[in-house]
Amino acid sequence: MIRDIEIKDKVEWKNLYYGYADFYKVEITEETLNTIWNWLHDLKHELNGLVYEIDNHIVAIAHYRRMPNPLRGKYIGFLDDLYVHPDFRGRKIGEEIINKLNEISKAKGWGLVRWITRNDNHSAKSLYDRIAKKSNWDVYELD
Q1: 66-87: per-residue pLDDT in tens?
Q2: Which of 7, 92, 18 is nearest to 54 (CA)?
Q3: Domain extents for the chain?
Q4: Of 12, 43, 52, 102, whose Cβ has the fewest other Cβ atoms within 10 Å?
Q5: How much is the pLDDT for 27?
Q6: Which CATH architecture has domain 2-131?
Q7: Alpha-carbon torsion (67, 72, 74, 77), positive or negative
Q8: CA–CA separation, 127 vs 121, rounded Å?
Q9: How far apart (Å, rounded) are the C-alpha atoms in residues 95 and 101?
């Protein structure tokens, strides 16, 4: 079952987010986790969270937000994070979450949903290639 993240989810969310950060080899602190958690529960903050629950346990998380798209003159949706616990992969949970986000996007009048992933995330990319169109944009970062 997909639903909005709730206060009661903190421990399981935290464990999943550690898994997500570990996958991307990003060191994450308790302070960072608390910041993200507070954003998710601040009604004035743009970050939102979804969870996928099986038998009263969270097995996947997703964070998304609206993002202005100046070329379109409207907001779009942006999927920041999507993580499915390794024991639950291959069950189309990620696909269900993305479909739910697409429903949210349509309900909010966003023109599209965009996300990025690492080039070597082959498992996720096989899903994304099947359900979405790969853009022709490259991503750059300044550190």
Answers
A1: 999 999 999 999 999 999 999 9
A2: 92
A3: 2-131
A4: 43
A5: 95
A6: 3-Layer(aba) Sandwich (3.40)
A7: negative
A8: 10
A9: 10
> Which residues touch 4 (CB under 8 Å, ≥6 apart)?
48, 49, 50, 51
| pTM value > 0.90 | yes
How would you write 39-85 as a 3-class SS string?
HHHCCCCCCEEEEEEECCEEEEEEEEEEEEECCCCEEEEEEEEEEEC
Sequence-distant (≥ 6) Cβ neighbours of residue 93 within 8 angstroms: 52, 59, 60, 84
Long-range contacts of 62-68 (CB under 8 A, 24+ apart): 62/97, 62/101, 63/36, 64/101, 64/104, 64/113, 66/108, 66/110, 67/114
Are 92 and 57 within 8 A, CB to CB? no
- Edge-first strand order for the sheet with 48-54 is 2-4, 48-54, 57-69, 74-84, 113-115
pLDDT band at 139 (very low <50, low <70, confident <90, very high): confident
119-136 pLDDT per residue, tens: 999 999 999 999 999 999
Task: Judge whether residue 55 has pLDDT over 90.
Answer: yes
Angle at 114 between CA 25 and CA 116, to 5 degrees: 20
